[in-house]
Protein backbone atom coordinates (compact mmCIF):
# COMPACT_ATOMS: atom_id res chain seq x y z
CA UNK A 1 0.00 0.00 0.00
CA UNK A 2 2.96 2.29 0.76
CA UNK A 3 4.10 1.56 -2.78
CA UNK A 4 0.64 2.68 -3.97
CA UNK A 5 0.99 5.97 -2.09
CA UNK A 6 4.49 6.50 -3.50
CA UNK A 7 3.22 5.75 -7.00
CA UNK A 8 0.23 8.09 -6.63
CA UNK A 9 2.50 10.87 -5.25
CA UNK A 10 4.98 10.35 -8.08
CA UNK A 11 2.17 10.45 -10.64
CA UNK A 12 0.78 13.62 -9.10
CA UNK A 13 4.16 15.38 -9.09
CA UNK A 14 4.85 14.14 -12.62
CA UNK A 15 1.53 15.45 -13.97
CA UNK A 16 1.92 18.82 -12.20
CA UNK A 17 5.53 19.25 -13.34
CA UNK A 18 4.71 18.22 -16.91
CA UNK A 19 1.81 20.66 -17.03
CA UNK A 20 3.92 23.46 -15.57
CA UNK A 21 6.77 22.77 -18.01
CA UNK A 22 4.41 22.51 -20.98
CA UNK A 23 2.78 25.78 -19.98
CA UNK A 24 6.14 27.52 -19.62
CA UNK A 25 7.20 26.14 -22.99
CA UNK A 26 3.91 27.19 -24.61
CA UNK A 27 4.16 30.73 -23.17
CA UNK A 28 7.79 31.07 -24.25
CA UNK A 29 6.98 29.67 -27.70
CA UNK A 30 4.01 32.02 -28.20
CA UNK A 31 6.21 34.96 -27.11
CA UNK A 32 8.82 34.03 -29.68
CA UNK A 33 6.10 33.72 -32.31
CA UNK A 34 4.62 37.09 -31.36
CA UNK A 35 8.08 38.70 -31.63
CA UNK A 36 8.69 36.97 -34.96
CA UNK A 37 5.38 38.25 -36.35
CA UNK A 38 6.08 41.76 -35.05
CA UNK A 39 9.52 41.71 -36.61
CA UNK A 40 8.09 40.67 -39.97
CA UNK A 41 5.51 43.48 -39.85
CA UNK A 42 8.16 46.00 -38.76
CA UNK A 43 10.55 44.91 -41.51
CA UNK A 44 7.78 45.38 -44.08
CA UNK A 45 7.08 48.85 -42.72
CA UNK A 46 10.73 49.86 -42.60
CA UNK A 47 11.11 48.73 -46.20
CA UNK A 48 8.12 50.88 -47.21
CA UNK A 49 9.64 53.90 -45.44
CA UNK A 50 13.01 53.24 -47.02
CA UNK A 51 11.38 53.10 -50.46
CA UNK A 52 9.56 56.35 -49.76
CA UNK A 53 12.76 58.13 -48.66
CA UNK A 54 14.66 56.75 -51.64
CA UNK A 55 11.90 58.02 -53.92
CA UNK A 56 12.13 61.52 -52.44
CA UNK A 57 15.93 61.60 -52.73
CA UNK A 58 15.82 60.21 -56.26
CA UNK A 59 13.37 62.92 -57.27
CA UNK A 60 15.67 65.54 -55.75
CA UNK A 61 18.59 64.01 -57.64
CA UNK A 62 16.69 64.29 -60.93
CA UNK A 63 15.89 67.92 -60.23
CA UNK A 64 19.51 68.65 -59.28
CA UNK A 65 20.86 66.96 -62.40
CA UNK A 66 18.40 68.86 -64.57
CA UNK A 67 19.25 72.17 -62.93
CA UNK A 68 22.98 71.52 -63.24
CA UNK A 69 22.58 70.99 -66.96
CA UNK A 70 20.66 74.23 -67.32
CA UNK A 71 22.80 76.34 -65.01
CA UNK A 72 26.25 75.31 -66.19
CA UNK A 73 27.56 77.92 -68.63
CA UNK A 74 24.70 80.39 -67.93
CA UNK A 75 25.68 84.11 -67.93
CA UNK A 76 23.37 84.94 -65.02
CA UNK A 77 22.06 88.10 -66.69
CA UNK A 78 18.98 89.54 -64.98
CA UNK A 79 16.68 87.89 -67.54
CA UNK A 80 18.51 84.61 -67.20
CA UNK A 81 18.35 84.86 -63.41
CA UNK A 82 14.60 85.42 -63.55
CA UNK A 83 14.15 82.42 -65.85
CA UNK A 84 16.20 80.17 -63.55
CA UNK A 85 14.38 81.43 -60.44
CA UNK A 86 11.04 80.52 -62.01
CA UNK A 87 12.48 77.15 -62.86
CA UNK A 88 13.60 76.69 -59.26
CA UNK A 89 10.12 77.59 -58.01
CA UNK A 90 8.51 75.13 -60.42
CA UNK A 91 10.86 72.34 -59.35
CA UNK A 92 10.25 73.11 -55.67
CA UNK A 93 6.53 72.70 -56.22
CA UNK A 94 7.15 69.49 -58.16
CA UNK A 95 9.21 68.11 -55.33
CA UNK A 96 6.59 68.93 -52.74
CA UNK A 97 8.78 68.10 -49.76
CA UNK A 98 11.46 70.61 -50.74
CA UNK A 99 11.71 73.75 -48.66
CA UNK A 100 13.89 75.44 -51.17
CA UNK A 101 16.30 74.93 -54.04
CA UNK A 102 19.39 77.16 -53.88
CA UNK A 103 22.34 77.75 -56.23
CA UNK A 104 25.61 78.80 -54.61
CA UNK A 105 28.67 80.33 -56.21
CA UNK A 106 32.26 79.26 -55.61
CA UNK A 107 32.40 81.29 -52.36
CA UNK A 108 29.27 79.77 -50.94
CA UNK A 109 27.15 82.86 -51.56
CA UNK A 110 23.63 82.35 -52.78
CA UNK A 111 23.34 83.06 -56.47
CA UNK A 112 19.72 82.13 -56.83
CA UNK A 113 17.00 80.56 -54.66
CA UNK A 114 13.47 79.28 -55.21
CA UNK A 115 12.30 81.43 -52.31
CA UNK A 116 12.64 85.18 -52.22
CA UNK A 117 14.78 85.29 -49.10
CA UNK A 118 17.21 88.14 -48.41
CA UNK A 119 20.43 87.64 -50.26
CA UNK A 120 22.81 89.06 -47.69
CA UNK A 121 24.30 87.02 -44.88
CA UNK A 122 23.33 83.72 -46.39
CA UNK A 123 26.73 82.29 -47.13
CA UNK A 124 26.95 78.48 -47.07
CA UNK A 125 30.74 78.17 -47.14
CA UNK A 126 30.67 76.59 -43.67
CA UNK A 127 27.97 74.02 -44.53
CA UNK A 128 29.05 70.42 -44.85
CA UNK A 129 27.56 69.96 -48.31
CA UNK A 130 29.43 73.03 -49.67
CA UNK A 131 32.75 71.93 -48.18
CA UNK A 132 32.16 68.43 -49.62
CA UNK A 133 31.48 69.64 -53.18
CA UNK A 134 34.29 72.18 -53.09
CA UNK A 135 36.79 69.50 -52.11
CA UNK A 136 35.42 66.51 -54.02
CA UNK A 137 35.42 66.73 -57.86
CA UNK A 138 32.65 64.07 -58.09
CA UNK A 139 29.30 65.30 -59.35
CA UNK A 140 27.34 62.60 -57.40
CA UNK A 141 24.69 63.87 -55.05
CA UNK A 142 25.56 64.42 -51.40
CA UNK A 143 23.09 64.03 -48.51
CA UNK A 144 24.11 66.45 -45.79
CA UNK A 145 23.39 66.40 -42.08
CA UNK A 146 20.23 67.96 -40.64
CA UNK A 147 20.65 71.69 -40.12
CA UNK A 148 18.51 74.63 -39.18
CA UNK A 149 17.63 76.67 -42.22
CA UNK A 150 19.09 80.19 -42.06
CA UNK A 151 16.22 81.43 -44.15
CA UNK A 152 13.16 79.78 -42.51
CA UNK A 153 14.57 78.51 -39.24
CA UNK A 154 13.13 75.06 -40.10
CA UNK A 155 15.02 71.80 -39.58
CA UNK A 156 16.13 70.59 -42.99
CA UNK A 157 18.68 68.33 -44.57
CA UNK A 158 20.23 68.92 -47.95
CA UNK A 159 20.55 66.89 -51.08
CA UNK A 160 23.16 68.69 -53.20
CA UNK A 161 25.35 68.45 -56.30
CA UNK A 162 28.55 70.10 -57.44
CA UNK A 163 28.52 72.59 -60.33
CA UNK A 164 31.50 72.55 -62.64
CA UNK A 165 32.74 75.21 -65.09
CA UNK A 166 33.64 74.43 -68.69
CA UNK A 167 37.10 73.19 -67.57
CA UNK A 168 35.66 70.91 -64.91
CA UNK A 169 36.67 73.32 -62.14
CA UNK A 170 34.51 74.09 -59.12
CA UNK A 171 31.74 76.51 -60.07
CA UNK A 172 29.57 76.28 -56.97
CA UNK A 173 26.82 73.93 -55.82
CA UNK A 174 23.11 73.46 -56.13
CA UNK A 175 21.17 72.15 -53.13
CA UNK A 176 17.64 70.99 -52.36
CA UNK A 177 16.71 71.51 -48.73
CA UNK A 178 14.20 68.91 -47.58
CA UNK A 179 12.11 69.90 -44.59
CA UNK A 180 12.23 67.44 -41.70
CA UNK A 181 8.71 68.57 -40.87
CA UNK A 182 7.39 66.97 -44.07
CA UNK A 183 8.92 63.60 -43.12
CA UNK A 184 7.69 63.84 -39.54
CA UNK A 185 4.22 64.57 -40.83
CA UNK A 186 4.36 61.53 -43.07
CA UNK A 187 5.81 59.33 -40.28
CA UNK A 188 3.21 60.66 -37.86
CA UNK A 189 0.48 59.13 -40.00
CA UNK A 190 1.71 55.66 -39.11
CA UNK A 191 0.57 54.19 -35.80
CA UNK A 192 3.45 52.57 -33.94
CA UNK A 193 1.88 52.85 -30.51
CA UNK A 194 2.69 55.11 -27.60
CA UNK A 195 6.35 54.20 -27.48
CA UNK A 196 6.92 53.71 -31.21
CA UNK A 197 9.67 55.60 -33.01
CA UNK A 198 10.99 56.08 -36.56
CA UNK A 199 14.24 57.60 -37.66
CA UNK A 200 16.40 58.33 -40.65
CA UNK A 201 20.17 58.38 -40.28
CA UNK A 202 23.22 58.52 -42.46
CA UNK A 203 24.93 55.21 -43.11
CA UNK A 204 27.73 56.44 -40.81
CA UNK A 205 25.28 56.40 -37.90
CA UNK A 206 24.48 60.14 -37.61
CA UNK A 207 20.82 60.81 -36.87
CA UNK A 208 19.11 63.06 -39.42
CA UNK A 209 15.82 63.14 -37.53
CA UNK A 210 13.62 60.96 -35.37
CA UNK A 211 9.92 60.74 -34.70
CA UNK A 212 9.08 61.76 -31.94
CA UNK A 213 11.24 64.78 -32.74
CA UNK A 214 13.58 66.44 -30.22
CA UNK A 215 16.06 69.13 -31.30
CA UNK A 216 18.79 67.70 -29.08
CA UNK A 217 18.63 64.34 -30.91
CA UNK A 218 19.56 65.89 -34.28
CA UNK A 219 23.04 64.78 -35.33
CA UNK A 220 23.21 62.11 -32.58
CA UNK A 221 26.08 59.74 -33.26
CA UNK A 222 25.01 56.12 -32.74
CA UNK A 223 27.76 54.62 -34.88
CA UNK A 224 28.83 52.38 -31.97
CA UNK A 225 25.41 50.67 -31.88
CA UNK A 226 25.24 46.92 -32.60
CA UNK A 227 22.67 47.80 -35.27
CA UNK A 228 25.44 49.25 -37.41
CA UNK A 229 27.48 46.08 -36.91
CA UNK A 230 24.56 44.05 -38.24
CA UNK A 231 24.04 46.43 -41.17
CA UNK A 232 27.67 46.04 -42.24
CA UNK A 233 26.91 42.40 -43.05
CA UNK A 234 23.33 42.62 -44.34
CA UNK A 235 21.04 45.40 -45.42
CA UNK A 236 18.23 44.78 -42.90
CA UNK A 237 17.67 43.21 -39.51
CA UNK A 238 15.82 43.25 -36.20
CA UNK A 239 16.85 43.42 -32.55
CA UNK A 240 15.54 44.16 -29.06
CA UNK A 241 17.37 47.04 -27.41
CA UNK A 242 17.01 49.77 -24.88
CA UNK A 243 16.99 53.21 -26.48
CA UNK A 244 19.86 55.49 -25.47
CA UNK A 245 17.57 58.45 -26.11
CA UNK A 246 14.72 57.66 -23.71
CA UNK A 247 15.75 54.39 -22.01
CA UNK A 248 12.68 52.49 -23.33
CA UNK A 249 13.14 48.89 -24.44
CA UNK A 250 11.94 48.44 -28.02
CA UNK A 251 11.70 45.95 -30.84
CA UNK A 252 13.78 47.48 -33.64
CA UNK A 253 13.61 46.87 -37.38
CA UNK A 254 16.23 48.62 -39.50
CA UNK A 255 17.24 48.79 -43.12
CA UNK A 256 20.23 50.18 -44.96
CA UNK A 257 19.32 51.57 -48.38
CA UNK A 258 21.07 49.65 -51.08
CA UNK A 259 21.82 52.71 -53.28
CA UNK A 260 21.87 55.69 -50.91
CA UNK A 261 23.92 56.15 -47.70
CA UNK A 262 20.82 56.13 -45.51
CA UNK A 263 19.50 53.94 -42.69
CA UNK A 264 15.83 53.80 -41.78
CA UNK A 265 14.87 52.51 -38.34
CA UNK A 266 11.46 51.88 -36.83
CA UNK A 267 10.80 50.63 -33.33
CA UNK A 268 7.83 49.64 -31.16
CA UNK A 269 7.82 49.58 -27.36
CA UNK A 270 8.48 46.01 -26.25
CA UNK A 271 5.99 46.04 -23.37
CA UNK A 272 3.36 47.62 -25.60
CA UNK A 273 3.99 45.29 -28.52
CA UNK A 274 3.83 42.21 -26.31
CA UNK A 275 0.84 43.40 -24.28
CA UNK A 276 -1.59 41.14 -26.13
CA UNK A 277 0.73 38.18 -25.77
CA UNK A 278 1.19 38.97 -22.05
CA UNK A 279 -2.57 39.16 -21.50
CA UNK A 280 -3.11 35.80 -23.21
CA UNK A 281 -0.15 34.26 -21.36
CA UNK A 282 -1.42 35.48 -17.99
CA UNK A 283 -4.90 34.13 -18.71
CA UNK A 284 -3.47 30.82 -19.88
CA UNK A 285 -1.14 30.59 -16.87
CA UNK A 286 -4.02 31.39 -14.51
CA UNK A 287 -6.15 28.63 -16.07
CA UNK A 288 -3.31 26.12 -15.83
CA UNK A 289 -2.70 27.18 -12.24
CA UNK A 290 -6.36 26.51 -11.47
CA UNK A 291 -6.05 23.15 -13.19
CA UNK A 292 -2.92 22.35 -11.20
CA UNK A 293 -4.70 23.33 -8.00
CA UNK A 294 -7.63 21.07 -8.88
CA UNK A 295 -5.26 18.20 -9.71
CA UNK A 296 -3.37 18.86 -6.48
CA UNK A 297 -6.54 18.80 -4.38
CA UNK A 298 -7.91 15.68 -6.10
CA UNK A 299 -4.51 14.00 -5.86
CA UNK A 300 -4.21 14.83 -2.18
CA UNK A 301 -7.68 13.44 -1.56
CA UNK A 302 -6.67 10.31 -3.46
CA UNK A 303 -3.51 9.88 -1.39
CA UNK A 304 -5.45 10.51 1.83
CA UNK A 305 -7.99 7.92 0.71
CA UNK A 306 -5.24 5.40 -0.04
CA UNK A 307 -3.70 6.16 3.37
CA UNK A 308 -7.05 5.75 5.10
CA UNK A 309 -7.66 2.47 3.32
CA UNK A 310 -4.13 1.36 4.14
CA UNK A 311 -4.74 2.16 7.81
CA UNK A 312 -8.03 0.28 7.76
CA UNK A 313 -6.40 -2.68 6.07
CA UNK A 314 -3.65 -2.60 8.68
CA UNK A 315 -6.25 -2.47 11.45
CA UNK A 316 -8.13 -5.36 9.84
CA UNK A 317 -4.90 -7.33 9.57
CA UNK A 318 -3.97 -6.77 13.20
CA UNK A 319 -7.56 -7.57 14.25
CA UNK A 320 -7.27 -10.79 12.28
CA UNK A 321 -3.92 -11.52 13.95
CA UNK A 322 -5.45 -10.89 17.34
CA UNK A 323 -8.37 -13.15 16.45
CA UNK A 324 -6.02 -15.87 15.30
CA UNK A 325 -4.03 -15.47 18.52
CA UNK A 326 -7.20 -15.62 20.59
CA UNK A 327 -8.32 -18.69 18.64
CA UNK A 328 -4.96 -20.34 19.20
CA UNK A 329 -5.17 -19.51 22.91
CA UNK A 330 -8.71 -20.86 23.02
CA UNK A 331 -7.61 -23.98 21.23
CA UNK A 332 -4.83 -24.48 23.76
CA UNK A 333 -7.22 -23.80 26.61
CA UNK A 334 -9.73 -26.20 25.09
CA UNK A 335 -7.13 -28.91 24.83
CA UNK A 336 -5.33 -28.27 28.13
CA UNK A 337 -6.04 -29.40 31.64
CA UNK A 338 -6.33 -26.32 33.78
CA UNK A 339 -4.72 -27.81 36.91
CA UNK A 340 -1.69 -29.64 35.50
CA UNK A 341 -1.16 -27.89 32.17
CA UNK A 342 -1.07 -31.32 30.51
CA UNK A 343 -3.39 -32.21 27.64
CA UNK A 344 -6.96 -32.79 28.81
CA UNK A 345 -9.07 -35.88 28.29
CA UNK A 346 -10.67 -34.59 25.11
CA UNK A 347 -7.31 -33.87 23.55
CA UNK A 348 -6.06 -37.28 24.74
CA UNK A 349 -8.97 -39.10 23.05
CA UNK A 350 -8.49 -37.21 19.76
CA UNK A 351 -4.71 -37.66 19.76
CA UNK A 352 -4.95 -41.39 20.47
CA UNK A 353 -7.26 -41.88 17.48
CA UNK A 354 -5.07 -39.79 15.20
CA UNK A 355 -1.92 -41.60 16.29
CA UNK A 356 -3.51 -45.02 15.83
CA UNK A 357 -4.49 -44.06 12.27
CA UNK A 358 -0.99 -42.71 11.60
CA UNK A 359 0.53 -45.93 12.99
CA UNK A 360 -1.90 -47.89 10.77
CA UNK A 361 -0.66 -46.05 7.70
CA UNK A 362 2.97 -46.41 8.59
CA UNK A 363 2.75 -49.84 10.17
CA UNK A 364 4.60 -48.44 13.18
CA UNK A 365 4.12 -49.33 16.89
CA UNK A 366 2.27 -47.22 19.42
CA UNK A 367 2.41 -47.38 23.23
CA UNK A 368 0.04 -46.16 25.88
CA UNK A 369 0.89 -45.72 29.54
CA UNK A 370 -1.72 -45.14 32.27
CA UNK A 371 -0.40 -43.74 35.57
CA UNK A 372 -2.25 -43.54 38.90
CA UNK A 373 -0.92 -41.80 42.01
CA UNK A 374 -0.87 -44.32 44.83
CA UNK A 375 -3.01 -43.81 47.88
CA UNK A 376 -3.93 -40.32 46.80
CA UNK A 377 -7.07 -40.32 48.92
CA UNK A 378 -4.86 -40.62 51.96
CA UNK A 379 -2.70 -37.80 50.68
CA UNK A 380 -5.71 -35.57 50.38
CA UNK A 381 -6.93 -36.62 53.76
CA UNK A 382 -3.59 -35.98 55.38
CA UNK A 383 -2.43 -32.82 53.60
CA UNK A 384 -5.65 -31.33 52.38
CA UNK A 385 -7.17 -30.96 48.94
CA UNK A 386 -5.09 -27.89 47.97
CA UNK A 387 -1.88 -29.76 48.74
CA UNK A 388 -3.33 -32.65 46.78
CA UNK A 389 -3.69 -30.33 43.77
CA UNK A 390 -0.09 -29.19 44.18
CA UNK A 391 1.05 -32.78 44.36
CA UNK A 392 -0.81 -33.56 41.16
CA UNK A 393 0.89 -30.59 39.46
CA UNK A 394 4.32 -31.74 40.71
CA UNK A 395 3.81 -35.27 39.37
CA UNK A 396 2.64 -33.79 36.05
CA UNK A 397 5.79 -31.63 35.90
CA UNK A 398 8.03 -34.65 36.39
CA UNK A 399 6.09 -36.53 33.71
CA UNK A 400 6.32 -33.58 31.29
CA UNK A 401 10.07 -33.47 31.67
CA UNK A 402 10.34 -37.13 30.75
CA UNK A 403 8.63 -36.54 27.39
CA UNK A 404 11.53 -36.19 24.92
CA UNK A 405 9.94 -36.52 21.49
CA UNK A 406 7.64 -33.89 20.01
CA UNK A 407 5.01 -36.53 19.21
CA UNK A 408 4.78 -37.77 22.86
CA UNK A 409 1.64 -36.64 24.63
CA UNK A 410 1.14 -36.54 28.41
CA UNK A 411 -2.46 -36.01 29.49
CA UNK A 412 -4.59 -35.92 32.58
CA UNK A 413 -6.81 -38.93 32.05
CA UNK A 414 -9.11 -38.12 34.96
CA UNK A 415 -8.83 -37.44 38.72
CA UNK A 416 -5.40 -38.46 39.91
CA UNK A 417 -4.88 -40.63 36.82
CA UNK A 418 -2.45 -39.56 34.03
CA UNK A 419 -1.84 -41.04 30.59
CA UNK A 420 1.01 -40.96 28.08
CA UNK A 421 0.72 -41.67 24.34
CA UNK A 422 4.06 -42.66 22.82
CA UNK A 423 3.80 -42.80 18.98
CA UNK A 424 6.29 -44.97 17.11
CA UNK A 425 7.48 -46.48 20.42
CA UNK A 426 7.27 -50.21 21.07
CA UNK A 427 6.78 -51.87 24.49
CA UNK A 428 10.48 -51.95 25.23
CA UNK A 429 10.94 -48.26 24.49
CA UNK A 430 7.81 -47.41 26.47
CA UNK A 431 9.09 -49.38 29.48
CA UNK A 432 12.30 -47.32 29.35
CA UNK A 433 10.25 -44.10 29.35
CA UNK A 434 8.11 -45.40 32.26
CA UNK A 435 11.12 -46.37 34.33
CA UNK A 436 12.79 -43.05 33.63
CA UNK A 437 9.65 -41.36 34.94
CA UNK A 438 9.38 -43.54 38.04
CA UNK A 439 13.04 -42.86 38.82
CA UNK A 440 12.62 -39.13 38.28
CA UNK A 441 9.60 -39.17 40.62
CA UNK A 442 11.60 -41.06 43.21
CA UNK A 443 14.37 -38.50 42.93
CA UNK A 444 11.84 -35.73 43.38
CA UNK A 445 10.83 -37.34 46.66
CA UNK A 446 7.43 -35.80 47.28
CA UNK A 447 6.63 -36.66 50.93
CA UNK A 448 3.56 -38.83 51.60
CA UNK A 449 3.35 -39.89 55.26
CA UNK A 450 0.30 -41.99 54.52
CA UNK A 451 2.18 -44.19 52.08
CA UNK A 452 4.27 -47.19 53.07
CA UNK A 453 6.93 -45.70 50.74
CA UNK A 454 6.86 -42.38 52.68
CA UNK A 455 6.76 -40.53 49.38
CA UNK A 456 4.43 -40.01 46.48
CA UNK A 457 4.59 -43.03 44.19
CA UNK A 458 2.83 -43.94 40.99
CA UNK A 459 1.57 -47.23 39.59
CA UNK A 460 1.85 -47.59 35.82
CA UNK A 461 0.14 -49.86 33.30
CA UNK A 462 1.64 -50.13 29.82
CA UNK A 463 0.18 -51.46 26.60
CA UNK A 464 1.62 -51.34 23.09
CA UNK A 465 0.40 -52.37 19.63
CA UNK A 466 1.08 -52.23 15.95
CA UNK A 467 -2.41 -51.22 14.68
CA UNK A 468 -4.11 -53.48 12.16
CA UNK A 469 -6.29 -52.17 9.32
CA UNK A 470 -9.39 -52.59 11.54
CA UNK A 471 -11.46 -49.76 13.04
CA UNK A 472 -9.14 -47.29 14.80
CA UNK A 473 -11.68 -46.41 17.54
CA UNK A 474 -12.08 -50.01 18.55
CA UNK A 475 -8.32 -50.43 18.63
CA UNK A 476 -8.05 -47.32 20.83
CA UNK A 477 -10.62 -48.74 23.28
CA UNK A 478 -8.78 -52.02 23.36
CA UNK A 479 -5.43 -50.32 23.95
CA UNK A 480 -6.84 -48.31 26.86
CA UNK A 481 -8.42 -51.39 28.34
CA UNK A 482 -5.14 -53.29 28.14
CA UNK A 483 -3.22 -50.46 29.77
CA UNK A 484 -5.89 -50.17 32.44
CA UNK A 485 -5.71 -53.87 33.20
CA UNK A 486 -1.94 -53.62 33.48
CA UNK A 487 -2.39 -50.67 35.83
CA UNK A 488 -4.82 -52.71 37.89
CA UNK A 489 -2.22 -55.44 38.16
CA UNK A 490 0.40 -52.89 39.25
CA UNK A 491 -1.94 -51.74 42.02
CA UNK A 492 -2.73 -55.31 42.98
CA UNK A 493 0.91 -56.29 43.03
CA UNK A 494 1.80 -53.66 45.63
CA UNK A 495 1.78 -50.28 43.83
CA UNK A 496 4.82 -48.15 42.86
CA UNK A 497 5.57 -50.33 39.89
CA UNK A 498 5.14 -50.81 36.17
CA UNK A 499 3.13 -53.60 34.65
CA UNK A 500 2.87 -54.37 30.97
CA UNK A 501 -0.15 -55.72 29.14
CA UNK A 502 -0.40 -59.36 28.15
CA UNK A 503 0.36 -60.73 24.71
CA UNK A 504 -2.28 -59.83 22.01
CA UNK A 505 -5.59 -61.55 22.00
CA UNK A 506 -8.81 -61.11 20.06
CA UNK A 507 -11.61 -59.71 22.16
CA UNK A 508 -15.30 -60.58 21.95
CA UNK A 509 -15.97 -57.80 19.38
CA UNK A 510 -13.40 -59.36 17.01
CA UNK A 511 -10.84 -56.50 17.26
CA UNK A 512 -7.22 -56.88 18.17
CA UNK A 513 -6.37 -56.08 21.76
CA UNK A 514 -3.13 -54.48 22.88
CA UNK A 515 -0.02 -56.50 22.47
CA UNK A 516 3.70 -56.47 23.16
CA UNK A 517 5.07 -55.52 19.76
CA UNK A 518 8.56 -55.26 21.21
N1 LIG B 1 -6.61 -32.97 45.50
C1 LIG B 1 -7.17 -33.60 44.49
N2 LIG B 1 -7.65 -34.80 44.66
C2 LIG B 1 -8.22 -35.50 43.69
C3 LIG B 1 -8.35 -34.92 42.41
N3 LIG B 1 -8.95 -35.84 41.59
C4 LIG B 1 -9.18 -36.95 42.35
N4 LIG B 1 -8.75 -36.76 43.63
C5 LIG B 1 -8.80 -37.63 44.71
O1 LIG B 1 -8.05 -38.75 44.52
C6 LIG B 1 -8.52 -39.77 45.29
C7 LIG B 1 -8.51 -41.07 44.61
O2 LIG B 1 -8.74 -42.06 45.59
P1 LIG B 1 -8.93 -43.55 45.27
O3 LIG B 1 -9.61 -43.64 43.87
O4 LIG B 1 -9.71 -44.15 46.33
O5 LIG B 1 -7.57 -44.18 45.15
P2 LIG B 1 -6.26 -44.00 46.04
O6 LIG B 1 -6.58 -43.34 47.30
O7 LIG B 1 -5.28 -43.21 45.17
O8 LIG B 1 -5.82 -45.42 46.21
P3 LIG B 1 -5.13 -46.31 45.13
O9 LIG B 1 -5.52 -45.78 43.77
O10 LIG B 1 -5.71 -47.66 45.34
O11 LIG B 1 -3.69 -46.27 45.41
C8 LIG B 1 -9.93 -39.37 45.70
O12 LIG B 1 -9.98 -39.08 47.11
C9 LIG B 1 -10.19 -38.14 44.91
O13 LIG B 1 -10.97 -37.21 45.62
C10 LIG B 1 -7.86 -33.63 42.24
O14 LIG B 1 -7.94 -33.04 41.17
N5 LIG B 1 -7.29 -33.02 43.31
From TrEMBL:
It is a multi-pass membrane protein. It catalyses: 2 GTP = 3',3'-c-di-GMP + 2 diphosphate. The keyword Transmembrane applies. The keyword Transmembrane applies. The chain crosses the membrane at residues 283-304. Its EC number is 2.7.7.65. Keywords: Cell membrane, Coiled coil, Membrane, Transmembrane, Transmembrane helix. PANTHER family: DIGUANYLATE CYCLASE DGCM-RELATED, REGULATORY COMPONENTS OF SENSORY TRANSDUCTION SYSTEM. It comes from Ectopseudomonas hydrolytica. Residues 498-509 have a biased composition (Basic and acidic residues). Residues 364-503 form the GGDEF domain. Residues 309-336 form a coiled coil. This is diguanylate cyclase. Residues 498-518 are annotated as: Disordered. It comes from the Bacteria. It is found in: Cell membrane.
